[in-house]
Design a protein that fits this description.
The chain is of the alpha+beta class and 166 residues long. 51% of the residues lie in helices and 11% in strands. Strands 2-1-3-4 form a four-stranded mixed β-sheet, with helices on one face. The chain binds FE2/S2 (inorganic) cluster (FES).
């Protein structure tokens, strides 16, 4: 039994039940692997391949095709700031710059504590709610740095609480 099967047995079972066969669940399972490893790591690829009864190279080629899967290590929180034109007109570029500066990272970089990776992305389909970002695929809208600092503290606290529990 691999790491994903051990830690996410219920989720894997629920996911597999939604698809006609194991192979069809590969993309949904890649999300779980990405959540566990922080990116679609070789271990994650192997775990998913085992669950789906697929060759790891097939799983890797699927992960490599779609932009929502990261093929390099990320922080625990993947902060994707939309800096596309409509959002840029509402201050998204400055927000993106200030966020990177606050966390001490360059574009695509991860904070020293391994918590946060910041990237800019194209339209997230919420243009009227800028500045906004997606954190692990959830949107956070109408942001400014004050609200952002509260969120960052909250996410850090959640992780610390999990660590202290285990
Ligand atoms: S341009 Fe930023 S969400 Fe559409």
């Amino acid at each position: 039994m691999n790491t994903l099967q051990e830690k996410y047995a219920d989720r894997i079972e629920t996911t597999l039940a939604k698809y006609p066969d194991k192979r069809s669940a590969v993309m949904a399972l890649l999300y779980i692997a990405q959540e566990e490893y922080g990116w679609v790591s070789p271990e994650g690829i192997q775990d998913v391949a085992e669950v789906c009864d697929m060759d790891p190279t097939q799983v890797k080629s699927i992960a490599g095709f779609y932009t929502m899967y990261s093929e390099r290590p990320k922080g625990r929180f993947w902060l994707q700031v939309c800096t596309d034109l409509p959002c840029a007109l509402k201050g998204a570029e400055k927000f993106h710059h200030d966020l990177k500066e606050y966390l001490g990272v360059d574009e695509g970089g991860t904070s020293e504590d391994g918590m946060f990776t910041v990237e800019h992305v194209m339209c997230l389909a919420a243009c009227d709610k800028a500045p906004l970002l997606q954190c692990n695929f959830h949107n956070y809208e109408h942001l400014d740095m004050e609200k952002m600092k509260v969120l960052l503290d909250q996410w850090r606290a959640e992780v610390n609480a999990q660590v202290n529990k285990s």
